[in-house]
């Protein structure tokens, strides 16, 4: 999860809490609902720092909710110039290192945080209070019930419910990622000029339905409990010209993607790497369709990603069993 632009954290409906939620706090659920409402109702602007793998960057953000439309602009203030402009969750333009490979699908799945669903895989709690960016905050924790996902600590603004600080932690309590506001203004909505993209921000292609067909040829023999397929597509790789099947899975908070591509006659090495919370695991797979390379990318433990990669199967292989 990203607690910031990062956040299109849109909470779903609230239902009766079942027995499996006994270790979760109703108060924490209420705060998560406030977080979702704030993202869709509260305009703000500010500055935040982002830390991953010991590297820091500073960003300005402008977020405006007007006439039911959510507009957002992000600008990195240090290092290479990077900018993103989004409207209702769809990227309009990007700059710098973000440009390659960014495109919007016509039916991109919006992230929906449902506390009831999360209680099946995380214990929700309130751990006290804090102070961030000169604002009072409540600390909400999400502790995973298994080894296949990470823990989160959210510091939510008492006044608005906005995330002032977010920490992602591994099973040993080590910091994987930090997002933290240093300045937050919720009084003045961003102006049209502040939301306007600069000249370096390049428009993002809107993919047509014909360009991105659903990926129907692949399935996984094993997934971590709670993860469900939320989106799939098949596109041509602009370099190799091979068809690449892409499948995205979600547990209501964390996400990962699986990419499957036919191997050319040349050799391709397996990959196993991690940068902060993001892992990338590639494995060769022999299938009825030939030699394939399966790559899993997402914010899940590396052992979990490796098991997912090795579990991918061609759909027609299942039919023959």
UniProtKB/TrEMBL annotation:
GO terms for biological process: regulation of polysaccharide biosynthetic process. Coiled coil: none annotated. Residues 28-197 form the MucB/RseB N-terminal domain. GO terms for cellular component: outer membrane-bounded periplasmic space. InterPro entries: MucB/RseB_C, MucB/RseB_C_sf, MucB/RseB_N, MucB_RseB. Transmembrane segments: none annotated. Keywords: Periplasm, Signal. Belongs to the RseB family. This is MucB/RseB C-terminal domain-containing protein. It comes from Pseudomonas donghuensis.
